[in-house]
Design goal:
Radius of gyration: 37 Å
Helix content: 55-70%
Strand content: under 5%
Number of helices: 20
Strand order of the largest sheet: 1-2
Shape: extended
Distance between the termini: 61 Å
Number of strands: 4
Largest sheet: 2 strands, antiparallel
Oligomer: single chain
Length: about 400
């Protein structure tokens, strides 16, 4: 309707005439003209372009010239009323026709969408509007709130569980009930032989950071690892290093696996022990040294407990050095680091571990220097220095 209104107005040439009269009055009041006319030219061009799009190339060109040179420039035929109205009418006619054509296509598309109907959905007549407590289609199910919705498949529910979890429950379902339903959906997926596909989704969501918390990821991976489906179990243990990136994740995984295995077994079978061994032996010596000193224990589990249960036997001398440090302490490994013919990895690890141990008794200035030299993190800093401004600034740098 707005376009029709502008079309009728332009037929009399009132827009161009009024604009010329207003511009003339403003140009007479403003001094000097060279400093202020550019704004008038730009405003006039904007007014034309906003109402009609590209109505006339000459008007947008005058706005461009005004913006660049700071002077308002009317085209030569601007004051030719017949030619000006002819240009306006032809441009508005083109836009009106394209607008009408677009409306027709949109209406036709809506009509086609209304006529299309899913073959497996039996919809009620459009004249009847059922309440929320009644199904809209025959294949709808009732949710916890009492309304009827379309049921999602188990794989889609599993994806939602990985992202949203079940912590705190919802307004209509408790946390325990929601968690049980999500776990049952994953068990049905594994029973159908789609466990490897579920493990692939777990790895994808975890490595891409698509979840706010890792708890649903770790729980799902533990359920796949403790399943009786051989391919799912292999895929789950093969993905441990990708999903369980820090010891906190590893401790949580071990705890869940033990809980799921009781009371039939302890959960420390051969496949489980080898997977935990590979998590430790597959890391670089310096990275493992940082991990065992930064995350010493979580959820009642420590690295010493896992070494004892998984029977870790590393082949790398540097990894052996770290395992001995975790079990017996730094005093027991110092002679090994001072022995002749020691590799560079052991020397580097020993220097880092010595910095971690010495940081427990350092002053503030010494601690700042140790952070810069050894790359210590916040977990390596004693409690009495955590509120130090100087130490906090160095840790954040």
């Amino acid at each position: 309707m707005k376009l029709l209104k502008y079309y009728s107005i332009c037929s009399g040439g009132k827009i161009a005439e009024d604009s010329r009269r207003k511009c003339g009055k403003k140009l007479a009041k403003i001094k000097p003209r060279s400093e202020s006319n550019g704004g008038l030219g730009l405003s006039f061009g904007q007014k034309i372009s906003r109402k009609f799009g590209r109505v006339s190339h000459c008007y947008t060109q005058s706005s461009f010239l005004a913006h660049k040179t700071g002077k308002f420039h009317f085209p030569e035929h601007f004051f030719d009323r017949k030619r000006r109205n002819k240009l306006l009418l032809s441009s508005v006619r083109v836009h009106f026709e394209s607008y009408s054509e677009g409306i027709s296509l949109k209406l036709a598309g809506r009509k086609n969408m209304a006529e299309q109907q899913a073959p497996d959905v039996e919809m009620v007549p459009a004249s009847e509007t059922p309440p929320q407590s009644q199904p809209l289609a025959a294949n709808q199910v009732q949710n916890e709130a009492g309304g009827f919705v379309w049921k999602v498949d188990d794989m889609e529910r599993f994806r939602r569980f990985l992202v949203l979890g079940s912590e705190g429950g919802t307004y209509y379902a408790s946390e325990k009930k929601l968690g049980q339903e999500n776990a049952q959906a994953l068990l049905r997926i594994i029973a159908e032989g789609r466990g490897p596909e579920a493990v692939k989704i777990i790895v994808e969501y975890s490595t891409q950071g698509r979840t706010a918390k890792q708890d649903p990821i770790i729980l799902s991976l533990a359920m796949c690892a403790r399943s009786s489906h051989l391919e799912t179990k292999r895929a789950a243990y093969a993905a441990i290093n990708q999903v369980l990136r820090i010891p906190t994740h590893l401790f949580t995984f071990v705890e869940i696996c033990e809980t799921l295995s009781k009371p039939k077994s302890t959960g420390w079978g051969r496949a489980h022990r080898k997977a935990i061994q590979k998590w430790y032996t597959g890391k670089k010596p310096r990275g493992l040294a940082v991990a065992v000193t930064k995350y010493k224990q979580r959820n009642g589990w420590s690295h010493r407990d896992l070494f004892r249960l998984c029977h870790v036997k590393p082949q790398d001398p540097a990894i052996q050095f770290i395992v001995k440090y975790v079990i017996k302490g730094f005093d027991a490994v110092q002679p090994d680091a001072a022995a002749p013919g020691v590799g560079q990895d052991i020397t580097s690890v020993c220097t880092f571990l010595k910095g971690v141990e010495d940081a427990k008794t350092m002053t503030e200035d010494q601690l700042v220097q140790a952070i810069k030299e050894h790359g210590l993190v916040r977990e390596h800093i004693p409690t009495n220095h955590l509120n130090s401004r100087q130490v906090s600034c160095v840790c954040m740098c």
